[in-house]
Amino acid sequence: MPTRVMKFGGTSVADPQRIRHAASRVAAAKADGDRVVMVVSAMGDSTDDLIELAKKISAKPAKRELDALMATGELASSALAAIALEDLGLRACSMNAYQCGIRSDGEFGHARIDAIDRASMDRKIDGGFIPVIAGFQAVSPEGDLTTLGRGGSDTTAVAIAAALDVMGDGGCCEIYTDVDGVHTADPRLVPEAPRLTQITYEEMLELAVVGAGVMHERAVVFGQRYGVPIHVRHSQRYELGTMIQKETPFMESIAVIGCALKSDLGRVVLKGLPSSANTQGILFGAISQMGILVDDIIQNDSDQLTHKFIDLSFTVAHSELPEVKIAVTRVLKSLGSGSMEIEIGLAKLSVVGSGMRHHSGVAGRLFETLGKADIAIRCIMTSEIKISCLIPQEHGKNAIRLVHSAFGLEQGERVTIERQLGRV
Known about the structure:
By secondary structure, the chain is an alpha/beta fold. The protein has two domains: 3-178, 3-Layer(aba) Sandwich (Carbamate kinase); 250-424, VC0802-like. The protein has 13 helices and 18 strands. The protein has helices at residues 16-31, 46-57, 63-87, 97-100, 119-126, 152-163, 201-209, 217-226, 279-288, 321-335, 362-372, 396-406, 417-420, and strands spanning 3-8, 35-40, 92-95, 102-104, 113-116, 130-134, 137-139, 145-147, 172-177, 198-200, 230-234, 242-245, 258-274, 295-301, 309-317, 339-352, 379-383, 386-392. The strands form four sheets. The protein has an eight-stranded mixed β-sheet with strand order 3-6-2-1-9-11-12-10, with helices on both faces. Strands 14-15-13-16-18-17 form a six-stranded antiparallel β-sheet. A hairpin with a 7-residue loop joins strand 11 and strand 12 (242-245). The radius of gyration is 23 Å and the shape is globular. The N and C termini lie far apart (49 Å).
């Protein structure tokens, strides 16, 4: 029998009516004869509410206790969903991270799953129960509850699907959310952006990293690593959504599959840093200790003749800039040289597609489109299947609409390479 891991996000279990609806979808899958596991997030905004509650008690709550508090949101959802399934005449049991054998590296707030012992889940399934698993949490080597960071319930679901080997029995991991799948762009920014029926792990991961909020990037990494098919679907509708998988029929024939916009970015530019072997380690080690994620690191020589100094830049979220400034100021003082400039009000516009490996002209089309609209490009970053550029944030919404149209993405998977690259 195929195994279906069905994960429901916070909006999908936001109130009793939606919990009952989610339970009905799980019941239907069970009636089809599938082996079913349900994974749930906390109800609605309850995680944010718990964090705010903790901050009313302490300005800086201990990370261990904050994780223990946040984990209660998913525990409540799993118990309520199990009650809803029992009310439908099914046998169900809520399970926490201890009971599922989900083990982490012990990093509070941003833990990573190290292993899952599937034995307890198998026993429940073989006994006729539907396990209802609290997402977002794992157990540290010391036995403490740890949380997996924002979007961690997606990661829980895909990791459990991998542990249960859904690939081997023709099953999949279904992610139920408040959107109907993955679109060629955020429909809130580009209303005409169509839904994709399929997308590769690689493309989805690149889109997630550059701002597409449909899937958590760590969940996509798990899916890619273990070959778990991931089906993104709308929790309140029954049509098919988007399948995330290794290959798609059009992956080489379409240059650009989607575009994304990531706003509220600042760029830190450092000049005249000493060109020693440990400069980068000291700098980014100091930033990392503050729990700050950096992006788009670019380095070059300040002095092409002596190579004694380097220039370096990177981007961070606007909200992180005050702490970054403090950390970098300390590092510059310890290094004995270097200056810092900070540019705010930036957005990152990206186009993504596996077909870029086989078709030239994407960069030219992208930059020509922005140039015609008089949108300045501050910085360019590329990978094998992605081109990103920093632009002024005030042009962001217009830029993504122009680029979406320039590559014919309103046609979705039907677009031709000639249309995308302006050859017609």
